[in-house]
């Protein structure tokens, strides 16, 4: 995979979330990603179709709340989380870089 494609993937799909709860989702063929905050559902669908060659059935997104830190109330960056359900029988082949 060339560097340009990896750069695009890391810009749109920032990271795959791996927790106990998301492992339960994975049994139901759902994957959880942190994505760029400016992407909408159709754009997330096309990125997944181009990069992983899978058919997306449904996408749920939500913006996670800001985390407040310290006395001056500094806030961390905001991000969007996407829960993606794939067509039955399809899986994502993920690498450790994502």
Describe this structure in words.
The model has no long low-confidence stretch (mean pLDDT 79). This protein has a 4-stranded antiparallel beta sheet. It has a two-stranded antiparallel ribbon with strand order 4-5. The chain has a single domain, classed as RRM (RNA recognition motif) domain (Alpha-Beta Plaits, 2-Layer Sandwich), CATH 3.30.70.330. Strand 4 and strand 5 form a beta hairpin. The chain contains 3 helices and 6 strands; from the N terminus they run αβαβαββββ. It starts with a helix and ends in a 12-residue tail after the last strand. It is an alpha+beta fold.
What tags apply to this protein structure?
about 100 residues; alpha+beta; two-stranded antiparallel sheet; globular
Radius of gyration over alpha carbons?
Answer: 15 Å
The number of distinct structural domains comes to 1
CATH superfamily: RRM (RNA recognition motif) domain
Report the structural category. alpha+beta
Classify the helix fraction into a percent range. Answer: 25-40%
Helix-strand topology string: HEHEHEEEE
- Straight-line distance between termini: 13 Å
Describe the global form. Answer: globular
Mean pLDDT: 79
| Number of H/I helices | 3
Secondary structure: number of strands: 6
